[in-house]
Design goal:
Helix content is 64%, strand content 0%. It has a domain of 39 residues. The chain is mainly α. The protein has 2 helices and no strands.
Length: 76
């Protein structure tokens, strides 16, 4: 018998912002070390942009969830 799928807990928006900032700082640091390298610099720059796009989408989704209006309870 299979166990039911347990959804992963959603990362808080604050934690997500901290993690994105830390990850992007690491990528920027690596880019600065390979300035002028015709192969490594464009690859890392592409990685940075891709990471930023994916992270932005996830962050926006988190913000939409956080700010969404909750359905009102129907009183009887």
């Amino acid at each position: 018998m299979q166990k039911p799928h347990v959804p992963m807990p959603r990362e808080t928006t604050e934690a997500m912002v901290r993690n994105i900032g830390r990850e992007l700082a690491e990528i920027k640091q690596r880019i600065s070390r390979c300035r002028g390298d015709r192969v490594a610099e464009p690859k890392l720059t592409g990685t940075w942009i891709a990471h930023l796009l994916v992270s932005s989408r996830e962050l926006l989704q988190n913000l939409l969830i956080d700010t969404a209006q909750r359905p009102r309870r129907i009183s009887r």
